[in-house]
Amino acid sequence: MPLVSRLSDHRRAAWLRVLAAALLGLLLLGDGTAAAATADPGSIGVTLPTNGDDPGVTLSLLGVFTLITLGPSILIMMTGFARILIVLSFLRQALGTAQVPPNQLLVGFALFLTLFVMGPTFERVNDTAVQPYLAKEIGAKEAVEKAQVPLRTFMLRQTGRSELAMFVKLSREPAPRTEADLKLTTLIPAFMVSEVKTAFQIGFLIYVPFVIIDMVVASTLMSMGMMMLPPAMISLPFKLLLFVLVDGWALLAQNLVAGFNT
Which of 103, 83, 115 is nearest to 252 (CA)? Predict the structure, then answer.
């Protein structure tokens, strides 16, 4: 078995080298692909700038690649994904089911709940910024500014006033008079802290009934003299039964979604 494992590792490494060489070849043939895309309107290609002496070109490319790399993380931090994932993690720990549901399932559940919660916000971003930009009615800078408005409204609605005031004070800048004057660099950290705070509050409420079950089971086992029997082994079926009887998953999803609509 170790020999088979090593052979599979070598084969995997060989495939990775082939893929790396293919990607390098595509990058080297970027100019040819761009030219072909220009000749054939139905093809897909990327037009790379040819003026390498202009430092603005290099900075633009660097900014684009940085945005592609950090874009998903920035988007996650500006939505309700963090709150939902933390609450689901608290629920799994309160149940005491170790890795059930697995991490992949929790992340997928949190992602689709986030898409459901953020659906109206994303629709406004698409209607006010993306579609006008694709129709060449507005420029890129104006599209970015208009796309910030729905996200800013969503984050402000979920951000606590104490967290917002704290970060405004830490920024050492004049207090904003309107919501539009509030910088995203101040709003996003306040939103993140507020989301984590709310998630921990919900986690506490989730933990309470399961802790009561653990205490009752532990006290019962101790009174019966079964001190060597792990209480978690006996309390786990009762916690699962309670969670199923109250339709816990639907109840949790409903309250999570309703919490963002308030």
Answer: 83
